[in-house]
Specification:
Shape: globular
Distance between the termini: 19 Å
Mean pLDDT: 94
Structural class: alpha/beta
Strand content: 5-15%
Strand order of the largest sheet: 4-2-1-6
Order of helices and strands: HHHEHEHHEEEE
Number of helices: 6
Number of strands: 6
Length: 215
């Protein structure tokens, strides 16, 4: 609630001068600071079932690491992000190809967006044949900073409830450094049905998503 951070981020060239988070877009020029609060009620699954609670989703795993030494605050580490996503997938004990959507950190910077895509491609290597949507709620409400991860999870929960992937905005032309050809990923730029993926026996699997939040 003080102006110092805003002033310093602006001086560092981190903020979009036109007030739009253009995640994965060719004209991405920084992020927009947003204000918001998110609340998530977490409970052990067995306890929630015993109490008859409405269960919106099950958190299969989480992971955290450190980006290590970098040239600057705004220069993320592809290898560290790859290792983080791989760790989360390993802990979840699921095949990456069974995930239907990834809510990206996706702030809308020319450097950070391609780094995140490259990390996801490396972490999901071997998922040929999968079709995984990717987007960022920051294009809708800006970057909530400390509440950004909660906002991303709430977006995923709403998409699961409506069985629909919501569009990521302000991306008419994709950043040329975001290379998605040959990968399982596509940027969700218009509303899409979110079908259930079937296992090898033809049985439907739960809708699964990953959520990234890098700070």
């Amino acid at each position: 609630v003080t102006p110092e951070a805003h002033i310093n981020f602006a001086k560092a060239g981190m903020l979009s001068p036109d007030g739009r988070c253009k995640t994965f877009a060719a004209d991405a020029n920084g992020y927009v600071r947003g204000e918001g609060v998110g609340m998530l009620v977490l409970k052990f699954l067995a306890d929630a079932e015993a109490d008859g609670d409405p269960i919106l989703a099950v958190v299969r795993s989480s992971a955290v690491n450190h980006g290590g030494r970098a040239n600057s605050l705004t220069a993320p580490n592809t290898a560290a992000q790859t290792a983080l996503v791989q760790d989360a997938l390993r802990r979840a004990g699921i095949e990456p190809a069974t995930i239907g959507y990834v809510e990206a950190h996706g702030t809308g910077t020319k450097l950070g967006d391609p780094v995140e895509i490259n990390a996801l491609k490396a972490a999901f290597a071997g998922s040929q044949g999968a079709r995984i949507g990717i987007g960022s709620v920051k294009t809708n409400i800006g970057h909530l900073e400390l509440a950004a991860g909660a906002a991303g999870m709430i977006k995923v929960l709403l998409q699961m409830a409506h069985r629909t992937l919501a569009p990521s905005l302000h991306c008419d032309h994709i950043n040329p450094y975001v290379q998605l050809d040959g990968s399982p990923f596509h940027i969700v730029r218009s509303p899409e049905d979110w079908p259930q993926i079937q296992d090898g026996h033809g049985q439907p699997l739960p809708r699964r998503a990953g959520i990234s939040s890098f700070g």
